[in-house]
Amino acid sequence: MIHAAWRERIARPVEEVFDYVADLDHEPEWNPDASNVVRTTPGELGLGTVWEEDVRRGGHFVTTIDGFERPHELSFDARSPRTDARVRFTFAPADDGATVVSCAVELTSKGLQRLLEPLLAGMVRRRIESSRGPALKRALEGSVAAGP
Fold first, then answer.
1. 99 and 42 in contact (C-beta within 8 Å)?
2. Which of 80, 46, 84 is nearest to 65 (CA)?
3. How far does CA 148 lie from the centroid of its chain?
4. Contacts of 68 (CB under 8 A, 6+ apart)
5. Bridge pairing between strands 59-69 and 73-79
6. pLDDT by residue (tens digit) across 116-145?
7. Average pLDDT, stretch 32-40?
8. What's the predicted TM-score (pTM) here?
9. What is the pLDDT of residues 56-113, one digit of tens each?
């Protein structure tokens, strides 16, 4: 299993940051590996909402919100034939109205890819830890999330 974690301070209110991250339609704006994200369940966003998405080097995933305590905790269970991922976010308001986002990722490879996991673990961990938080910060503090 590959573990990665990151933390980022974002100059936006906690509810706004939570809602943005919870809606995976936004994921390609801050995760360069995500594409073709399509929500497959109707209704209000929340526990049990499902998307299908393609993740570079990971394949086609079915991703489900399996933890939803707005605006403080959010988690996703993502499954593909090659890899399963558990992604957990926590959101804490800062004194100045900003939000501190923490994220923990657990990746479990399947099949023959599992044999390569020890060799790839460091590279995958570094890529996640160095890029995801800053990219989320740019997306939320930039014009994409600012809106009208």
1. no
2. 46
3. 25
4. 22, 46, 47, 74, 75
5. antiparallel
6. 667 677 777 788 888 899 999 999 998 544
7. 95
8. 0.88
9. 877 899 999 999 999 999 999 999 998 999 999 999 999 899 999 999 999 898 876 7
Spatial strand order of the sheet with 83-93 comes to: 2-10, 99-109, 83-93, 73-79, 59-69, 50-55, 34-39
C-alpha to C-alpha distance for 66 and 91, rounded to whole angstroms: 16
Q: What is the DSSP string of the chain?
A: -EEEEEEEEESS-HHHHHHHHH-GGGHHHH-TTEEEEEE-S-SSSSTT-EEEEEETTTEEEEEEEEEEETTTEEEEEEE-SSEEEEEEEEEEE-TTS-EEEEEEEEEEE-TTHHHHHHHHHHHHHHHHHHHHHHHHHHHHHSHHHH--
Give the whole-angstrom CA distance, residue 75 versus residue 65: 6
Helices 113-141, 14-22: axis angle to 10 degrees equals 140
